[in-house]
Structures are given as C-alpha cells and as structure tokens.
Amino acid sequence: MSRTRDRGAPPRPVELSDPSVADVVDEAPVWSAPFGAALLERVILRRGITALDVCCGTGYPAIELANRLGPGCRVIALDVWRAALDRARRKIGVQGLDGVVPLRGSAEQLPFADARFDLVISNNGLNNVGDEDRAFAEVGRVARPGAQLAITWNLPESMAELYRELEAIFARRGLDSSIAACAAHIHEKRKPVEHVLALLDRSGFERPEVSLSSFSMRFASGGALLGHFLIRLAFLPAWEELAPADQRDEVFAELEERLEAIADREGEVRLTIPFACVTARRR
Fold first, then answer.
1. In terms of DSSP H, where are the helices of the chain?
2. How many Å apart are CA 26 and CA 13, to the nearest integer?
3. Which end of the chain is least crowded, N or C, by CB within 10 Å?
4. What is the pLDDT of residues 152-199, one digit of tens each?
5. Do 157 and 274 contact (CB within 8 A), yes or no?
6. CB under 8 Å to 131, separation ≥6 — which residues?
7. How far apart are CA 254 and CA 277, in angstroms?
8. Chain Cα centroid distance, residue 29
9. Are residues 25 and 19 in contact, defined by beta-carbon separation less than 8 angstroms?
C-alpha cells in the first residue's frame, strides 16, 4: 500500500523573519544536541573563565556551558537573530544565570577588544557565516593566547541520501546548472576538515584535535521529511533555490515521490549527518 500522502499545497519554507519562529523552534533536541554534546565533552572546564559562543541561536550550548562552569564565569552569547536572543534571555532569566549575556552581533565583526576570551565555541555556526575568512580571523583576534577554541559543523556527506535523489532528478531533466549549484551549495555550507584546519592555522590556532561522529534523522515518509518543521526552517529554502523557478514545484513533487518509494521499500527515509568537532589552542 502506498504511503504517499494527500499533498495539497507543497510544504513551504519557514521564514526566520517571523518573530514567532524563535518561540517555537526546538532545534536543540533535533539538530543541535548531537553537535553540542560532542563540543561540551571536549571543552576544558575552568572556574571563572570568560567564554564566547559565536552564532548562539536560541542559546544552546552557551546556556548549558554556563551551567556547567558555575558561578563566577561569564559567557557571551552572540548572534544576529534578534528574536532568538530574546528567547535566550527568557531562558537565562528563568534559570537565574547572571553570568550569561546575550548580545546581538556579527561573527565577521565581533564587538570585543583583542584577546578578551579564555574560550570560544561555535556549535554548527561558523559554517553558516557570510565571510568565513573574516569570521575566523575575528575569532582569532578576540581569543587570548592559550585560549581554547571548540567548534562543530556538519561535513560534506551530510544528507547524502537526499542530495543523491535531488541530483538524479536534475540529471533526468537535463538541469546541469542545478547540479553545479547543488555541489556549490554543499561546499559553501559543509566544508571538509582540511579546509577548516587551514582556516584555523591562518587565524592563529594550533594543536588541533579532530573528532568525527554522525547521527541520523529518520522519517516515516517523504512527506514527513519535507514537511518537518526543522527541514522547512533550515534546509528547504536553500534546496528550492537549486531548481529553476519554473520547474520548482515539479522537481519537489518528484523528489517527494522518490522519497516515498524509498520509504515503501526500506520502511523509512533516513538522512545521515556526519560531523566534526575540532578543538585548538590560540598561539
């Protein structure tokens, strides 16, 4: 029996500009937690330090880090998303964490003096900035000599199961430019480890330690995958841009059909997300 749902209107992306989104998004359990758990496991916990979380979103793992560091620490949680920072403030208030300071700002222009922080973290954040060279240089500038950096990001093979189906659709339709755009999109957001290590070296960090891991997201159907709130929030907008506007609806209807076929054959649709956690020291 087919699992294809009654589609009606196709799933639409979720707009970050909608201020209500930050109040309902629970990306930490679904997406950020595996990355953040790896990061928190590798952070050196010292009393009274000053730390910075770059691209903190709604406050994970900055708030959890502050809880683990205890009284006397200071954690600056920085992001450009105003509504997410408002939610982080509410979490901080409820938890009574006087040492956490949410701050609106850009990774490419950190509003801090040189050599300010003992620890800098970024949980799947620095891979989403507009200018990675400038952002990493800024992180190096604000880190004290000997400071620890701990970052995570998902690797180029992330969600390969979906991209394989999408690229097959582009190939069948003769959309060579979309295939090229897909490859460029993956490289822009999901850098190889060697690329990030080179960025760290240029930014003044040394003695990198690399830990590789992965997790899966599983869905009962193609419709469930494409309709999932996190997918519509964080991934679908970029995927839709890969297809020509005049073929977009047809491409994604076909993508859903192909994913449904996988669910019928294998009992689920599984997306694998390999990721890296790297720690390093400021020279």
1. 21-24, 27, 33-42, 62-69, 82-95, 132-142, 160-172, 176-189, 193-202, 222-227, 229-234, 236-242, 248-266
2. 16
3. N
4. 999 999 999 999 999 999 999 999 999 999 999 999 999 999 999 999
5. yes
6. 108
7. 35
8. 13
9. no
Lateral strand order in the sheet of 117-123: 100-104, 74-79, 50-54, 117-123, 143-154, 269-282, 205-219
Strand-strand pairing, 205-219 and 269-282: antiparallel
* Spatial distance between the Cα atoms of 94 and 26, rounded to a whole number of angstroms: 17
**pTM exceeding 0.70:** yes
CA–CA dist 81, 157 (Å, integer): 27
Residues 125, 57 contacting (CB under 8 angstroms): yes
- Sign, CA dihedral 119-41-125-101, equals negative
Which amino acid does the sequence have at 110? L
Tokens at 131, concatenated = 């200018």
- Is the confidence at residue 15, as pLDDT, over 50? yes
The enclosing H or E element of 137 equals helix 132-142
Mean pLDDT of 250-267: 98
CA distance 118 to 97: 19
The amino acid present at 223, given as its one-letter code, is G
Q: Which residues fall within 8 angstroms of residue 175, CB to CB, at 6 or more apart?
A: 243, 244, 247
Q: What is the pLDDT of residue 94?
A: 83
Express each pLDDT in 86-127 by its tens digit.
999 998 988 889 999 999 999 999 999 999 999 999 999 999
The residue among 2 and 23 whose pLDDT is bigger is 23
| Residue 130 DSSP one-character state | S
Q: What is the DSSP letter of 52?
A: E
Residue with tokens 């953040």: 36
